[in-house]
Design brief:
This protein is an alpha/beta fold. It contains 16 helices and 24 strands. Bound molecules: NADP nicotinamide-adenine-dinucleotide phosphate.
């Protein structure tokens, strides 16, 4: 494993791209300049230029020209595949640099970025690239005088708006299937974390992607994201972020051109432990990842740990021992499990939730405050509440920080009722030693992803997305994601 000093040396030599990437090159934007801040020390990493609304339209125009003249969608799937494979290779060649860049920009632990996020980004391109020359279209069973073909075609220009919690991963999970399907893409990363997305665009160009096919615009959600939502011609818009913004984009799509819209939004996921579970140590280990992975800045963070009353005391003891072993601090130090929260205002919001939890009657078992203030960074200790009840704010709202709460139930029916009592439905975790219970309860949980006896979001081959207000009309990953970036066409020929 590399050391903190090793990563610090890479950090010193990093160069940051600071302008939007449009039509194959970095072009200074005409909008207001903005700073990207390192969440671990509060210092400015670099100042970037943002776009104007008119420049978003220019980016769309460049993407549309690329679409219309078929420089990308007109390539044989095997040719697109080769370019996307080149890009995957380049991501791995730049693995250390990208991992460090992400850590500096997003406060995420270096080990997560190096071991998971960057390789997974490369694998996502490989998966989607590999799929495109395997899909088959259909000839339906028509009458003898007609030939009926059902074929898929790319949507056209696809907008993508991504959040700050997994900046590279979220850009790739959208760009890879959209590009593999033959679309042109205009992507807006969160202004809090633009750097790895800009580097991705540059690497895509180096990999052989034609100009105009993959564009990155910069600027705030309120102006640039809003302009994408209202764009009258983009055929698709894929978004990951908060439920409130997602719903607004849905309205804008309806008010403009009925663009195809795919929304991945918030969550409030339960972690249920049934009384038959013998290996509570394993359950507690998984609960740590479920609650604190990425500092809890995770749409599938399990911030409601629901334990059957008969095993609650035993589980709590084991869980708290594991929480005590967690280390929080400089995210460039591979020894730290948790880094910094994305920005000061977000940290303050999480701290307010902790205060609300106390006021509403939940008891703090550990954590509960900001630490390492002297660093200038946004660090909060892993926090565990006891006595959580469904009426409490912290049991209903998405906290998006390292805060979880323990609650009890007495029967399977009650567990399902509590778990489903939320406007969200992204993910649920279930621990049981009984196969029938696992199947029965998995069917009753109203969530797009249910993991049994582990905490997981699945892999690249499984669709990821949410029920209820966690998602709308779309899934990430797998061939389902690839297909959603294509229209279906029926061709009916008289013979
Ligand atoms: P957010 O505030 O909704 O922002 C997400 C993206 O939307 C950012 O690029 C943001 O731009 C942009 N945006 C903000 N306001 C906009 C507007 N009015 N019109 C168009 N775009 C706008 O969410 P976030 O705080 O970045 O991310 C956290 C949320 O994402 C959580 O709710 C989390 O659960 C969710 N999330 C869901 C998934 C999933 O797969 N379901 C995965 C990850 C995160 P700026 O930041 O530049 O303003």
């Amino acid at each position: 494993m590399n050391t903190k000093e090793y990563y610090q040396e890479i950090a010193k030599k990093l160069e940051f791209d600071t302008d939007p990437f449009i039509n194959g090159k970095f072009v200074k934007g005409g909008g207001p300049a903005f700073d990207s801040i390192n969440p671990a020390n509060g210092k400015v990493i670099a100042t970037l230029s943002s776009n104007t609304v008119e420049e978003v339209y220019e980016a769309e125009k460049a993407a549309r020209e690329a679409f219309d003249d078929k420089r990308w969608r007109g390539l044989a799937p095997a040719e697109r595949k080769e370019i996307l494979f080149n890009l995957a290779d380049l991501l791995m060649e730049h693995r250390e640099e990208l991992a460090v860049m992400e850590t500096l920009d997003a406060g995420k632990p270096i080990t997560d970025n190096y071991e998971d996020d960057v390789p997974e980004a490369a694998d996502t391109f490989r998966f989607q690239a590999e799929a495109i020359d395997k899909l088959e279209d259909a000839v339906t069973a028509g009458d003898p005088d007609h030939l009926s073909l059902v074929v898929r075609e790319p949507l056209g220009v696809v907008g993508a708006i991504t959040p700050w919690n997994f900046p590279l991963g979220e850009a790739v999970i959208k760009a890879a299937p959209a590009l593999a399907a033959g679309n042109s893409v205009v992507l807006k990363p969160s202004s809090l974390t633009p750097f790895t997305t800009l580097r991705l665009a540059k690497l895509a160009s180096e990999a052989g992607m034609p100009d105009g096919v993959f564009n990155v615009v910069l600027g705030s959600g309120d102006t640039i994201g809003d302009a994408m939502g209202k764009h009258p011609e983009m055929e698709g818009l894929t978004f990951t972020g908060s439920t409130d913004v997602g719903k607004k984009l849905l309205i804008q799509a309806g008010e403009t051109n009925a663009k195809r819209i795919f929304l991945e939004m918030g969550g409030k996921s339960p972690f249920i432990i049934m009384p038959d579970v013998k290996d509570l140590d394993h359950a507690a280990e998984e609960a740590i990842g479920a609650a604190y992975w990425n500092m809890g800045e995770n749409c599938t963070a399990n911030s409601r740990i629901m334990v059957h009353k008969d095993i609650k005391d035993k589980f709590t003891e084991v869980f708290l021992e594991k929480v005590a072993e967690m280390t929080t601090g400089d995210p460039l130090d591979p020894d730290n499990d948790m880094g910094a929260l994305i920005e000061k205002s977000h940290m303050e919001k999480v701290l307010r939730y902790i205060e609300t939890g106390k006021k509403e009657g939940a008891e703090i078992l550990c954590g509960g405050g900001q630490i390492l203030k002297e660093t200038g960074g946004n660090f909060i200790e892993p926090t565990v509440f006891d006595g959580l009840t469904q009426d409490m704010t912290i049991a209903r709202d998405e906290i998006f920080g390292p805060v979880t709460g323990l609650m009890t139930f007495e029967s399977e029916e009650e567990a399902i009722k509590i778990a489903n009592d939320t406007r969200y439905g992204l993910q649920a975790t279930l621990f049981t030693d009984d196969l029938s219970t696992a199947h029965r309860m998995s069917r009753e949980l109203r969530a797009g992803n249910v993991s049994v006896n582990c905490y997981s979001e699945g892999d690249l081959g499984t669709p990821f997305g949410g029920y209820k207000q966690s998602g709308f009309f779309g899934r990430e990953n797998s061939v389902w994601a690839l297909r959603q970036y294509m229209e279906l066409k029926t061709i009916w020929i008289e013979l």
